[in-house]
Each structure stands twice: as structure tokens, then as C-alpha cells.
Amino acid sequence: MSASASVRSAVMTRDDAENGHRTRLFLAWMLAVAVVLVIAGYGYNYYTLGATERPFSPKHEILRPSGTIGIRLGMLGVLMFFLIYLYPLRKKWGWLGRQGNSRHWLDFHIVLGTTAPIIIAFHSSFKFGNIAGMAFWSMLMVTLSGFVGRYLYAQIPRNLNAAELSMKEMQEREAALRKELAEQRATFGFAVDALYQLPSAAEVARTPAVASLISMVLIDFRRPFRTSWVRLRQAGFGPWLFSLFGFLPTRNPGLERALRIAKTEAKLAKSIAFLSRTQRIFQLWHVIHRPFSYAFAILAIIHIGLALYMGYRI
User: Fold this and answer.
1) Which terminus has fewer CB within 10 Å in the chain: N or C?
2) In 3-state terms, the chain is what percent helix, strand and coil (to 5)?
3) Are 283 and 149 in contact (CB under 8 A)?
4) Do 32 and 116 touch, CB atoms closer than 8 A?
């Protein structure tokens, strides 16, 4: 087999794996949404009752925390949350670490971490008091901080093996992108800076960590609107309107290729500008995220132990 054929085969294999992962992830999200909607739909007229009215509801015996469905929702929520711990454990267990790649695990980690607090909220009938309440709020903080962590994770450029790229490799990649972008700019006349406005390295260095995080989020938030404006200028009002005001691709393949290159270069340039800050915030994030996850695990175990020992009937 020739070298070019080997490269094509490797690319096709990687693309197949990514497509398969995206399909599985989509199905996981759809299943999570379906479960939540079914529970919410069935229990809506119970969960919206006041505390004094619930005991008179015909659904009280099955939806209260110790009810037939309520207790199983608690079991499901706790099971889902403890499955979340497989993600950090894979770094310690070699055989588990060899299964799939880190980014794929992280995606399912987020699905579980997002769904588990909702399931636990249904289990508790939206009553968050005592140890169970402390466990729920700890779990919610884990989930919210997890979204921040996922965003930071995506800001650190990685190669196909999920290892962080060095600054030199990033700069070489950016130079190659800029060269290709210059060719596109000669045709369409817009520069990559039309899609972002970055602070200087000195400004980033002076910016506090939290402010840097907010700045990165705002840059990413503005980019689709800037892309829409470029499509309006380059493609005209008609194509811009039919592309959902420029938020979807137009039918101009040359323009869309130029935009893809520009957006890729813009993201990489932002990553380079904020790299040291991102890595620092990511380290601080671990300091915040882990204690909440450990606190939830301890509180959940205490709550379950007390419920089993004392035979709570709520």
C-alpha cells in the first residue's frame, strides 16, 4: 500500500470513528431529554402542588422521594453520578484509559453530569433540605463548573492523540493557515480580523483570570454575528437572508471555504493569545471542581446510609 493510500485510509478511519461518536452522543442526549420530558410530563400536576397539597394527590405514593417511582429515580440519579467518576478514574486505571479517547469520554461525562441533577431533583420532589439538599447543591455546583471545564478544555489546542500542542507547533499551524487565508482574502477581500478582535499579549497578561475567561466567552459569542456580517457583505442580501440571516452557510462554496479557514485561524489565534491564561484557569478549575464532586459523593453516601438505617418515609 502506498503512503498516500495509507494516509487516506487513516483519515477515513478517523472520520468514521468521529461520525460514530457524534451519532452515539446525539442518541445519548436524545435519550436523556426523553427521560426528563416523560418524568416531567407525568408528574407535572404533582410537582407543581404545594407541600400541604401533595399528600392528597393520587400520585403521592409513587412520586414522593420514598415512593415506588421516587426511590428508583434516586437510585438512577446516584448511579448516573457515580458513573461520572469513570472519567477521572480512567487516568489511574490503565486498561480503562485505553478504551476510547479522552474527548469522547468527556462528552458522555457531560451528558451524565447534566442529566443526573435533574433526575435527583425529581427524586426529591424539588425539596432540597437537610443532607439530601446539601448533596443536591454540591452536585449542581459540580455540573455548572463542569460546563466551564469543558469550555476551557476546548480552548487548549490538541493533536489527534489528544496531547496538547506546543506553542511552536501552534504558531507553525497558524502561519500555514494565514498563508492559505491570504489566498482566499485576495478573492473575497476580508481579513481574519473581521471575525474577532483580540487583546494584545500584554493586555492578556495584565487581565485577572476570571476576566480572561469572560473575555474568551465574549469573543466566541460575537464570532457568529461577525460571520453573519461578512456573509451579508460578500454574498449580498438575498443569500444572506436565505441562510437564516447569515448564521447558516450560503450556497457559495468559495466564500464558505474562506470563512472556514478564517474561523479556524481566528480560534487558533485566540488560543495562542490566551494559552497561558487558559492553562492557569484550568488548573484553578480543578481545585474548585474536585472538592464539590467529593463532597457530593460523601453527602450522598451519608444520605443513602441514613435513609436505609432509619427507614425514612417521606
Assistant:
1) N
2) 80, 0, 20
3) no
4) no
pLDDT digit string (tens) for 242-252? 888 888 888 88
pLDDT tens, residue by residue, 111-143:
888 888 888 889 888 887 777 677 777 777 777
User: Which contacts (CB < 8 Å, 24+ apart) does range 149-156 have?
Assistant: 149/282, 149/285, 149/289, 150/106, 150/110, 151/217, 152/213, 152/278, 152/281, 152/282, 152/285, 153/103, 153/106, 153/282, 155/216, 155/270, 155/271, 155/274, 155/278, 156/271, 156/275, 156/278, 156/279, 156/282
3-state secondary structure at position 158: strand
Q: Position of cell 453516601? A: 301
Q: Using alpha carbons, select from 244, 249, 268 the residue that is nearest to residue 259.
A: 249
The model's pTM: 0.64
Q: Please give the radius of gyration of the chain, using alpha carbons only, rounded to the nearest integer.
A: 24
- Residue-wise pLDDT for 8-59, tens only, equals 444 445 556 677 888 888 999 999 999 999 999 999 999 888 888 888 889 9
